[in-house]
Amino acid sequence: MIVTTTPSVQGKRIVAYRGIVFGEVVAGVDFVRDFAAGLTNFFGGRSGSYEEELVNARETALRELEARAAERGANAVVGVDVDYEVLGANNGMLMVSASGTAVVVE
C-alpha cells in the first residue's frame, strides 16, 4: 500500500477512486506518564513518554487508514492528512485522525 501526502503517486497513474478513508485513534494518557511529563516540564527537556504515545497513536491511525483503503480495493492512499487533538475534561485523551483518498494506481 502506497500512502502519500501528495495528490498523486509519482510514476503511477490513478485509474480508479475508491473514496475518502479515515483512521482514528483515541488514546488515554495515564497518571504515570502525566507525572513523568510534569517532571520533564519542570526540569526541562523532552517528554519521551508522551512522544512514544504520539508515535504509537499516529502509526495505529495510519495502519487503520491503510486497512480501510484495502477493504475498498485500493492499492494507494493519496492526499493524506494527519490531525492531532487533545480531548477530555482534563485534556487526558489524545486523538489522532488520518484521512486521505483511496485510489487504484498502475
Quick recap:
The protein is of the alpha+beta class. Helix content is 35%, strand content 40%. It has helices spanning 31-43, 48-71; strands at 2-3, 14-28, 76-87, 93-105.
Notes on the protein architecture:
Strands 1-3-4-2 form a four-stranded mixed sheet. It is α+β, with helices and mostly antiparallel strands. It is built from two helices and four strands, in the order E-E-H-H-E-E. It is elongated and about 45 Å long.
Our count of helices gives 2
Unreliable spans are none
- What is the end-to-end distance? 12 Å
What structural category do the secondary elements indicate? alpha+beta
| Strands, total number | 4
Q: Over all CA atoms, what is the radius of gyration?
A: 17 Å
Keywords:
elongated, single chain, four-stranded mixed sheet, alpha+beta, 106 residues
Write the layout of secondary structure elements.
Layout: E1 2-3, E2 14-28, H1 31-43, H2 48-71, E3 76-87, E4 93-105
Parallel strand pairs: 1-3
Antiparallel strand pairs: 2-4, 3-4
